[in-house]
Amino acid sequence: QVQLLESGGGLVQPGGSLRLSCAASGSWFRLNAMGWYRQAPGKQRELVASIISGGSTNYADSVKGRFTISRDNAKNTVYLQMNSLKPEDTAVYYCNAHLRRSWSDSGVYDHWGQGTQVTVSS
User: Fold this and answer.
1) How far is Cα 62 from Cα 122, in angstroms, rounded to an integer?
2) CB pairs under 8 A, 24+ apart, for 104-107?
3) Residues 6 or more apart from 8 whose CB is under 8 A from it?
4) Which residues make Cβ contacts (< 8 Å) with residue 96, sequence separation at least 6?
């Protein structure tokens, strides 16, 4: 059983900053990657940023230079620092964990948090 607990969402003015946190709890064999997705009204869910084993990161073009993803392996926690926020960043942000569940199951699976609302408005 794996649970993802998100925090840090809220209302912020354009140009402001927010820091999202996602802590993974439960048990797994190997946590391969964690990331953040978002879904705005009327749009499909999209990848915002991800971080994998070794620290490699990936960002959507729309957030490059403004958002930074990081992790604390000891705490099984991933963060998303969001700076210079724009109204178009308004969305529900979802934490994702990509992991191998057990020694006997070599497959990898995705687990999702419940989402946290980020609203950028003046």
Assistant:
1) 20
2) 105/29
3) 18, 19, 20, 21, 80, 116
4) 4, 34, 35, 36, 37, 50, 110, 111, 112, 113
CB-based burial label for 37 (10 Å; 0-12, 13-18, 19+): buried
Neighbours of 22 (CB within 10 A): 25
pLDDT tens string, the chain, 122 residues long: the values are 899 999 999 999 999 999 999 999 999 999 999 999 999 999 999 999 999 988 999 999 999 999 999 999 889 999 999 999 999 999 999 999 999 999 999 999 999 999 999 999 99
CA distances from 77 to 60, 66, 96 (A): 20, 20, 11
Rounded CA-CA distance 66/55 in Å is 18
Nearest to 98 by CA among 117, 74, 71: 71
Nearest residue to 89 via CA among 118, 67, 52: 118
